[in-house]
Amino acid sequence: MTSTLTYQLNRLLRGSTPFVLTLLLALLSVVPTGISGFAIVTPAFVSISVFYWSIHRPYLMSAPLVFLIGIFSDFLTGAPLGLTSLMLLVIHGIALSQRRVFIGKAFLLTWWGYLLVAFGIAVISWLVTCLYSLTLIPLTPIMTQFFLTLLVFPLCAWGFGFLQNSLLRHT
């Protein structure tokens, strides 16, 4: 293999890191834990990843990739096909449009921004699910998932930041 081909392959692999990582997080979200009721309130790792990478590396987390991640997630969870894609595309669009607000600012501002976006997505998801099932679904699991997601956001953001600084510095 020539050095140019090796360089291009290395760049492709590094550039696909956010997409592949988000797919792995989607898989992680459906792994059975043995904890009763945890599947309902598993933190939304995929939405955290889409939000983070849409702000920090938007060219590596494009809308078509977000759509594919959503479809993959719907297949894994059994959600109505396209619902997760729609929600992730909304998160991606908001993060992308507000990118200048978050870049270079304190982490608390990004966390606050994610809180607002995630709360809106949680409420919209609950409404759509109620309409889809034609029944009033309890709000407690949705809010529990929302709060768990907020609690793990700093840890995920730190991990993504570490990955970005060490692996994606030259993409």
From TrEMBL:
Highest taxon above the source species: Bacteria
Protein location: Cell membrane
UniProt xrefs under InterPro entries: Cell_shape_determining_MreD
TM stretches of this protein: 20-53, 65-91, 111-134, 146-163
Membrane topology according to the record: Multi-pass membrane protein
Keywords, sorted A to Z: Cell membrane, Cell shape, Membrane, Transmembrane, Transmembrane helix
Alphabetized NCBIfam families for the sequence: shape_MreD
Official protein name in the record: Rod shape-determining protein MreD
Gene behind this protein: mreD
